[in-house]
Fold these 3 entries.
Entry 1:
Amino acid sequence: MKVENVKKFMEERGINGKIIELGEGKARSSMIAAKTIGCPVAQIAKNIVVEDGDGNVFLIIISGDKKVDLSKLSKVVGSDLKLANAETVLRETGYIVGGVPPFGHKKRIKTFLDKSLERFNEVYTSGGSPDTLLKISVDELKRFSAAEIVDVSK
């Protein structure tokens, strides 16, 4: 799956957002992306895939200046979680690590949005590759990711 898939997903659903092409690897990490576009790292929304011991996969969208507290998120989900490996991320989302968008995945994934993003009107998140960002309002992100709002950052 590629950036084109994210664009198509957005067009089909009328999602207001803008894909920004940055160049090779410029969106791979929150720090690099923030430096490239000139925003605070906190305004970069990371999309992190986690899994439980039964193979259930979840997505947490969190501010770039925060880390996921897996014990807090595990309590929300009701089972112990760990970061998903690169193979699982690709299989479940259709995107590589560093390029996972907040929606438009290969499979339906239960999504959570950390309250740390509610400080902003707009955020930048992955646009489907390590070379792109998606500029989107937090309200649009909440609505179209169908995310449950949680407080799981540290």
Entry 2:
Amino acid sequence: MKRWPWFERHFNFDYPPEKFPDLLERLRGTPLRVEALIAGVRPQLLTADDGQGWTIQQNIGHLIDVETLWVRRFEQLVAGESNLVAADLTNAATNAADHNNRSIDDLLASFCEGRYEFTSRLETQSEDMWFRSAVHPRLEKQMRLVDLVHFTCEHDDYHLARIRQIVRNDV
């Protein structure tokens, strides 16, 4: 099945703020989902280039690389800024990183640690923070904390689906 490109996706950002705890739980679970997805995968497949994009390890590395963007946007919401920082649409950090030469255990531990730190900060926010918003630069829409978490979950799932595609194509 042809995949829907990430930059062609649009978001409504219409979840009620009360959806935040559910989405936070989804966000918290991504590292475990990554681990489960690659459990038993032959080591050579983790860095195999199928010519359709990043390898499994590069996808995991990208999730690590982009975590700083989610944290920065969170900090901007907390600070009451009106515009969120733009993402590097060229993915320079991921393309320059040597994720294929890192151990998979190191990648998984790094992602788990970063995500734990992020979700720990998110869960300490008071309910009044759920209503703050700032403009997402590419989408040109107001993004609240619940929307940031939803957007991050969707981005995670996009890369998990790509990893699953690579795993399935190896069968």
Entry 3:
Amino acid sequence: MTQFGPLSELRERPIGAVTEIRARRGGYRAYPIARSNTLHGEPMVELKSLGLAGENYYHARRNPPYWQRIEGSIPALLARSSVAQRLVRVDARLRSAGLQLHLFDAWRPKAVQAYFHDVWMPAELRRRNPSLTGDALTAEVERYWAAPSRDADSPAPHATGAAIDLTIRWIDGDALWMGSLFDDATPLAHRDRFEALGDGDLSFSDEEARANRRLLHWLMIEEGFAGHPDEWWHYSWGDQLWAALTGADAAHYGEASDGV
């Protein structure tokens, strides 16, 4: 038995290309929200109170590439209770191998969403590629940062309490190597970045990142989550993106404001 015990198989199970999933993502914010379902008004809970580990990345100061506390951020990690219970079950599976989830972000205030969508990301993209302007710039921004919305039928995923950013770490120890920083807004962060490369093209670091992304992916997928194709850390259950990626008829959750 390896260090990862019964989870070893998941580290070896290919994710495959996410081309089809990436195509399904288009127009996801037009998916209906089933407000009559029993989950729609479900409360949010503080995830750390359930024994899950993490720190709100935007409220921290050691948070590359930002290196600052983002105005409007909160220290809490909040999610809908059904989402939270699924995370607890994933965490329990990891603990059988001496691992645990580590959360970066969950419910996100509009001020944080707006800052990154309207200010930080456009400036960073223009710094790297001054030719990006207009619709092309907006499209590139929105590969990674959804626009904040005042439309109740089209909330940003993290505004719903159904979206989670996370990784895996050793219990009270170092994070597993995933191949990029959290929030790396480049193709390096794409879920299938290392899947298309032949074994002869992978460095030791690449092989380890591929195995660890696979582990996180399958643990979350087997618990019903959907994974953002361009962000290895982003998963959701019950929001419009989840509905689009899984083929559900409608989302369970709309916007959750002020932690309720």
